[in-house]
Design a protein that fits this description.
5 strands; 56% helix; 2 domains; five-stranded antiparallel beta sheet; 176 residues; elongated; 5 helices; alpha+beta
Length: 176
């Protein structure tokens, strides 16, 4: 078995690992950012409102169709009289929470990172296909085809949401 074939297989494997690492890190960062912005608040999905640690309810005030998000706001006079206002908000209009309507892979950032991950997978497939064309011995072809199968499965998994939603956005759900 040639060194070139082994190196190509290892490199393709590293590209797949990089694609999944990028996918995981970007989704993790997205989840952390959402948790940070709503720390201490509780969301009630049945009645579609947020509740602050002091019991004030933040109701939907604006639905932005272009940015695909909902803005929730507490009543200004309640927030301005709250003893925790300094730690919660600097706004005199009441605390605001913004909730994206789209789940992670359908957001613009999710779409961007998913496409980058798919490009890495595609590059791995291209390297393996070139290697398969250059080296025809049975052990080399076996190794290359095995890694190519892994690359194909990774590409299918990463591409399923993009295929399911060509515009990359699910059907809008209006706040109740």
């Amino acid at each position: 078995m040639s060194t070139e074939t082994v190196l190509a297989a290892v490199y393709a494997g590293l590209l797949i690992a990089a694609a999944f690492s990028l996918e995981w890190l970007s989704a993790h960062t997205h989840r952390r950012a959402l948790r940070f912005r709503t720390a201490g608040f509780r969301y009630d999905p049945d009645r579609d409102f947020w509740e602050c640690p002091q019991g004030e309810q933040l109701w939907p005030r604006e639905f932005d169709r272009e940015l695909r998000l909902v803005r929730y706001r507490a009543r200004a006079h309640v927030c301005n009289a709250c003893t925790l206002k300094e730690r919660c908000t600097d706004s005199n209009d009441g605390r605001e929470i913004v909730r994206p309507l789209d789940p992670w892979p359908h957001s613009e950032a999710g779409h961007f990172h998913r496409v980058i991950a798919l490009l890495l997978v595609g590059l791995g497939a291209l390297i393996l296909l070139v290697e398969l064309a250059r080296h025809h011995s049975l052990p080399e072809a076996g190794l290359t085809c095995t890694i190519l199968l892994v690359v194909a499965l990774a590409g299918r998994w990463l591409g399923r949401d993009l295929r399911a939603h060509p515009a990359n956005f699910p059907e809008p759900t209006l706040p109740r």
